[in-house]
Amino acid sequence: MPVRNGVGYIEAAIESLVDQTERDIEIIVSDNASDDGTGDYLRAVAQKDPRIKYFRQESGLRAYDNFRFVLEKARGEYFMWAAHDDTRDLDFIEKLAAVLDQDDQVVLAFGDLNIVTPDNPDGTIQHFPFATTGLNRWSRLRKVSQLQCFNIYGLWRTNVVRQIPYAYCAWWPDLPMMLSAAYLGEFKHVAGTRFHYFEVPKSSLDRVKYQDFAVRFHLISGVAGLIGATYRACSQIGGIPIGIYAASLVVLKQALNLPGFIYRRVKLQLTSP
After folding, report:
1. pLDDT (tens digit, 9 = 90+) per residue, 113-123?
2. Residue ranges in the chain assigned as alpha helix (H)
3. C-beta neighbour count of 168 within 10 angstroms
4. Overall domain count for the chain
5. Is residue 104 a contact partner of residue 183, using CB atoms and an 8 Å limit?
6. pTM of the predicted protein model
7. 173 phi and psi, to 5 degrees?
8. Same structural domain for residues 120 and 9?
9. pLDDT at 265
10. Rounded to 5 degrees, what angle do the CA atoms 172, 13, 195 make?
11. Is the domain of 55 the same as that of 108?
12. What does 233-272 look like in DSSP terms, one character per residue?
């Protein structure tokens, strides 16, 4: 669990981990220089539960680097990232681990997706067709490139997720990781256990400011960074042809999203006082 300033959410997130039906887990928490009392809460719960390992970053890391930090500390056969404002059903880890135990081709298992918002705390189950079982590598890349990366919060084979190259970008930093992982193996859907994703609308600048302590963000340079990071990560995993193919898929996705982006910007300008 990488966290920064999680007061108001982190208690529920921690409870959804410590109360899992799978008891044999280690919970690695990296507190990214929080200044809102998050650290006090985490130190207290770590004293009560020896499975919780608490680390504090005195100077802020980029969110991407904090995610990598907890991965480096992991010791288990399987690994899962847990954001400080998301929760999951209490049988989530147990059911996903059972699938990984049974099928060596699966590198990532994920359950049903429930989108929670401040106005809808119970959430809404969303169709999320992320599974890539039975597809070849090229098809897996093509499918993953067109989706949001909710399933990054599924259960991974630790040895596989550690093979993903370091390729930071400010915009969609999880996409190069997921494309690299798609090359390495299959993603499988496990029905009947839910991941509850807490969604708060943010502008691109707000998101990057929170993730990376940035003071400005330009979408064009952000997209260029995403394309470059995708090429670097995927070419290291699968060679230059895979890197070019994955980067071209990202270019296509951004091109398809451009009309919607322009529409939202124009609408915002017209409705602003």
Report:
1. 999 999 999 99
2. 10-18, 38-48, 63-73, 92-102, 137-145, 158-161, 174-184, 204-212, 219-238, 240-271
3. 16
4. 2
5. no
6. 0.91
7. -65, -20
8. no
9. 52
10. 60
11. no
12. HHHHHH-HHHHHHHHHHHHHHHHHHHHHHHHHHHHHHHH-
